[in-house]
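Sample pair:
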Amino acid sequence: MKIEFIGTGEACDEHCPNTSLLVRTGGGKRATLLLDCGFTASTRFWLHAKDPDELDGIWISHFHGDHFFGMPLLLLRFWEMKRRKPLTVLSQQGGKGPVLDAMELAYPGFLRKMRYELEFVEVEPERPVQALGLQWRAAPTRHSRRNLAVRLDDGDASLFYSGDGAPTAETSKLARNIDLVVHEAFGLEPLVEGHGTVQGCVAFAREVRAARLALVHVQRDVRRERKGEILEMARGTEDVPVFLPEPGDAVEI
């Protein structure tokens, strides 16, 4: 499984694009997935993928703009590039409405013109699914809007992606013995209720016995002014390798 960090920033960072991951799976059935699609993700996607039919599915962790407002532009460009292949959109229950509403608001009438199907799949904590050659399991984080962290298993490797929000007992159970945790870490100390911290994410990764931890969605001023502290902390965690990915970085698990 290869993970490319299309963006690693929070909602308002003018230098670092919104957090979004491009995942290329191995296992029995290969698939290409996008985890979250915020304001900046749709244009950044085309730096990593050129074929309009390459993307098989999109996961939306929750319905804040920096996690799904890039959908209309991505769907529009697929239409413009004459995509024919169906696209699977996975999210929590009720996700179809916000996606279609956003598309209709951004580009009225284009849903009727699209030559490819959107297939919506709901994933809930009590309802894991098999889709695109993967097992999808979810658990709620602690966030201001309902957000589901997701665990992906392709038979060879496993990935945990938090979306937004602080860890919970449910996400700790979900992430047990994971190959890679990608977790939102908004600050070194608690800055905003319902967001993670660097220290909390390191503790979480240790608790679940993760093989590696990637810290994303760091508050813009913290990332610029205290990056050295974050990296120093990362160097001090020998039991769980910790890294702070930059946009464009990639890792294989």
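The two ends are 5 Å apart (CA to CA).
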